[in-house]
Structures are given as structure tokens and as C-alpha cells.
Design brief:
26 strands, Jelly Rolls, single chain, mainly beta, four-stranded antiparallel sheet
């Protein structure tokens, strides 16, 4: 049976910051491009994947669509391509908007096809009537999003506003290298290296050339530090701008200053009067039904909404490997209520599948939507060795698995349809002695089975746990109590 699960791309592919767009009957994913065991954000060139809108289980790799050195500002390939967005312009061509690291420019590339390849087109700039038409290098051009409205008018959104001095990976420019940059870039780069500024989210309309601003940029929604008295308190803008028009209203999706959550604001206009709507998803399920403890390692987040067929989905990403440099795209179905609101949804393993997964055969362990341990941290700090080494999904030699499973670890999957399942299989290696408990909930109130194990092997081996489960749309939690450490490669059912 053809199925799909989260992450929806192969487990050896890392496309975070996913912006989904439907063009000509296919949904395309545009995002940045991490790598396994990444050392910085977005080390690879842009790629895209696509699927027919009537079969989200059939993803096709479209290849590299834009290389980091195609922009003259990055001919030496020193900077990384960060989160992009794509729109179909009024002329019928497809425009890719992007930024490099913290470099103060928004680049634009163009293609005749949504699958690319894209060719360099230019940099977003002011009109000649403003600053003599110079490149937009102020107002922190970062994480661009773009909307071509029904009337053909085009709006550009961007911004970066850390509410705290979060550790960021900056381009490694020396003072000597900065001195060689054009004068208008030098002061900006010196400021960027300090990362102590606050810029609220920005918006400006573009001319039909898709490059030139029609106006001075304007504030769209407040940041964490400027949100008092605005309705955005506790969920001010940080980064990850994304924009959609749905049922005549404009939805601005963004990462709040908490970083792990995607929130939305809503307006009747594309460029003003946005009010806070709520959280759509947290990549640790914080805020879901009042939950305050992360159910997955927290990390930054970025994504967007898209209507695919008759359903709406939120695309987001999760971290792997104890860092924010090897992130993977996930998606969940959402419901837009009659009043326009969106209720927060949970992370699941079944994602785009259209329902629960069939509890039959083997699945990669990495589709877990719940990974917690005794050391799971309630805030984001990947400089902390504990966060780097806690239970996590990793890829080594093209094999993905969950590593560092210890006493107090729980790995969870939502959801499965169980039809007279007699055994749960775990493909494991490592050195561990203790008890494995299977349950339908994290609190172990709905226990399926319990089994004592004793594993001492560097080779993968199957452990069989007898169960009796016949139930639809049920979770599976696997909890470990004992001594030692395990790796988990696959789970399965008989």
C-alpha cells in the first residue's frame, strides 16, 4: 500500500524552511537545503521536489534549481542560500526571492518553469526617487516572502527581529574582507556581526519589474520587543515570513520570538492592519492543549500554508542530529474555521498520508513525532552539550536511526491503524538491559505490552514484543527503563 509519513521527503534529504506552492496541478516545495551532520545553516544549493495535488504520496526530485554562486554577490560561494520563496509573476514567469546568510540584499532569480532552473535576475532595489535607486540593504533584508495578488499587484515581506541574543551562525568575514566590500555594505556587515538590533517585519509593494520597490518599506507586525499593547504579546515576530491569501483574507505566517512555533496574523489587506491569530504548530508541541513540556527537541521553525486539493496544510521543519543545521520538512493538515481562525495542530508521523498509517511491515524509526528523554531541554540552546547529545535522529553512512536511547527515553508515533497486531518489532543495536513498555499514550495509562530485553551488539537485530492490538487511529509510544544505551533503526508490526 502506498503511504507517506513525516518527514515527507526521504530521510536522507534535508529541505527546511519549506514554502509549498501549487502550480499547474502540482505542489512544489521551495526551501533552503541543509545536509546531514551540517556545520552551518543551508550549506547546499536550492533544490525542489514536487507531487501531483491528487497524490501527495508521489514526490519527485526536480533537481538543483539555483546554485549559490549564480548571484554575483556570492561568486566565491562563501555564503549560504537561506530561506526562499517563489511566486508566479503577472508576466507568467516564476520568480525566486532569496537571501544569503546575513548579507544585506534580497536576490531575485527567474524561470519559465516552477521546476526551474532559475537564472539570476537582479537585487531588490529602491526606485530612483528614493535613495537614487540603491539596492535594498537596510531594514534587515532577510527571509523574503512574496505574494502576487489577484489584481496582479505584488508584495514583498521580510524581516529579522531576535527578542533575545540567540546564538547565530554568522558569515565568517574578517575585518579585512569587510574592508574590501563596497562602502555601503561595510557598516551593515559590522552591525550584523553584533546581532543586537531589532527590526520588525517589513512589507513593501513591488513594481511590475519584480525588482523595484514602489515605496519605503513599512512595519507589518511587531517584534517581541515592540509587541506590548498590540495583541502580539508573547508571540512577537522573529523571522520566517510567509504570506497567503485564503478566502479573501491575508494570512501572514511567521516564527515568533520563541523560535519553535509558527504563528499567524490575519488581515483584510495585504500590507497592513494584521491582528494576531494564534499558534499553528510548534515543533515541540508547546502550547498544544496547554502543554508546556516539549515532546520533541525544540529548534527554529519556518514554513507556510497551502491549499492542496480540498485540504489546507501547514509545512514546517524539525531538527535532527542535535543541531539546527540538519533540518527536515514535515507537514500537517489544518482546518480554517468559518471565522478564519486556525486551531493549533500536533506533530504527527502520518502527516500528508490522509489518515493513520497501516500497522503492517517495517517503518523507519526516524518518522517518530515524539522523542523525549530525561535530558530533554525546555528551551533552545544547541551550544549546550546536553542538547547536542540527547536522544535524537541521526544519519550516518546513509543510514538513519534514533540514537542515545537511555533510561527515561520515550519514542512515539501518531497514528497507526492496528488490525489484530500480534508483535511489535524493534530493530536495535547497542548495549542495554531493562524494560520496554508499549502504550497508546505518553503517560503509560493505556499499556499495550511490556517486555524485558538485554541487548549487547554492534549489529542491528530484531527484538519482538508480543502484543494484542486491534484499534483504529491509535498512537504508539515506546518507553525505555534500564541501563545502557540503544540505537533504534526501524519499527514494525506482525
Amino acid at each position: 500500500m502506498e503511504q507517506i509519513f513525516n518527514p515527507y521527503l526521504p530521510l536522507t534529504e534535508y529541505v527546511p524552511d519549506g514554502e509549498p506552492h501549487v502550480f499547474d496541478g502540482r505542489v512544489y516545495i521551495y526551501g533552503s537545503h541543509d545536509k546531514a551532520q551540517g556545520k552551518v545553516y543551508c550549506e547546499q544549493d536550492y533544490v525542489t521536489w514536487s507531487a501531483p495535488v491528487d497524490n501527495l504520496k508521489d514526490w519527485k526530485y526536480e533537481g538543483v534549481i539555483y546554485r549559490k554562486e549564480q548571484d554575483p554577490s556570492n561568486a566565491d560561494k562563501k555564503m549560504q542560500l537561506w530561506a526562499p520563496d517563489v511566486t508566479k509573476g503577472p508576466d507568467g514567469r516564476y520568480y525566486l526571492y532569496y537571501c544569503y546568510s546575513f548579507y544585506p540584499e534580497i536576490g531575485v532569480a527567474v524561470s519559465d518553469s516552477p521546476a526551474g532552473p532559475f537564472e539570476f535576475y537582479g537585487h531588490v532595489k529602491y526606485p530612483k526617487s528614493l535613495y537614487e535607486g540603491k539596492t535594498l540593504d537596510d531594514h534587515m533584508p532577510f527571509d523574503p516572502a512574496v505574494l502576487t495578488d489577484d489584481d496582479g499587484r505584488v508584495y514583498l515581506y521580510w524581516g529579522f527581529a531576535p527578542a533575545c541574543e540567540k546564538e547565530m551562525i554568522l558569515p565568517d568575514f574578517s575585518d579585512e574582507e569587510i574592508a574590501q566590500m563596497p562602502p555601503e555594505k561595510q557598516d551593515m556587515m559590522k552591525t550584523i556581526k553584533k546581532i543586537k538590533f531589532v527590526v520588525d517585519s517589513q512589507v513593501a509593494e513591488l513594481e511590475p519589474d519584480m525588482l523595484t520597490l514602489k515605496e519605503e518599506p513599512r512595519k507589518l507586525i511587531p517584534s517581541g520587543k515592540t509587541s506590548e499593547g498590540t495583541g502580539f504579546e508573547g508571540h512577537g515576530f522573529f523571522e520566517a515570513s510567509s504570506i497567503r491569501k485564503i478566502n479573501g483574507k491575508y494570512y501572514f505566517v511567521y516564527s515568533s520570538h520563541k523560535s519553535h512555533e509558527l504563528c499567524y496574523a490575519i488581515s483584510d489587506k495585504p500590507d497592513r492592519d494584521f491582528v494576531y491569530g494564534g499558534i499553528i504548530i510548534s515543533n515541540g508541541n508547546i502550547g498544544l492543549d496547554g502543554n508546556e513540556k516539549p515532546t520533541y527537541t525544540l529548534s527554529n521553525n519556518h514554513g507556510g500554508i497551502e491549499k492542496i486539493g480540498d485540504n489546507y496544510y501547514i509545512f514546517y521543519h524539525r531538527c535532527t542530529d542535535g543541531n539546527e543545521f540538519s533540518r527536515q520538512g514535515c507537514a500537517e493538515k489544518i482546518t480554517i474555521e468559518d471565522d478564519g481562525t486556525i486551531k493549533q495542530v500536533e506533530m504527527t508521523s502520518c502527516g500528508l498520508n490522509g489518515g493513520a498509517l497501516v500497522a503492517s511491515g517495517m517503518y523507519p524509526a526516524g518518522i517518530a513525532c515524539h522523542i523525549t528523554s530525561a535530558t530533554t531541554m525546555s528551551f533552545i540552546d544547541f551550544n549546550n552539550p546536553v542538547m547536542q547529545k540527547q536522544t535524537r535522529m541521526v544519519e550516518r553512512q546513509n543510514t538513519t536511526y534514533i540514537t542515545n536511547i537511555e533510561d527515561g527515553t520515550t519514542v512515539g508515533y501518531k497514528y497507526f491503524d492496528f488490525d489484530n497486531v500480534k508483535e511489535v518489532l524493534l530493530e536495535v543495536c547497542g548495549e542495554f538491559g531493562g524494560v520496554i513498555e508499549l502504550s497508546g499514550d505518553f503517560d503509560l495509562k493505556e499499556k499495550y505490552a511490556s517486555s524485558r530485553i538485554n541487548i549487547d551488539s554492534d549489529n542491528w537485530q530484531l527484538v519482538s514484543i508480543p502484543v494484542e492490538i486491534s484499534a483504529k487511529n491509535k498512537a504508539l509510544y515506546i518507553s525505555f527503563t534500564g541501563n545502557g544505551s540503544l540505537d533504534l533503526k526501524s519499527i514494525g508490526f506482525r
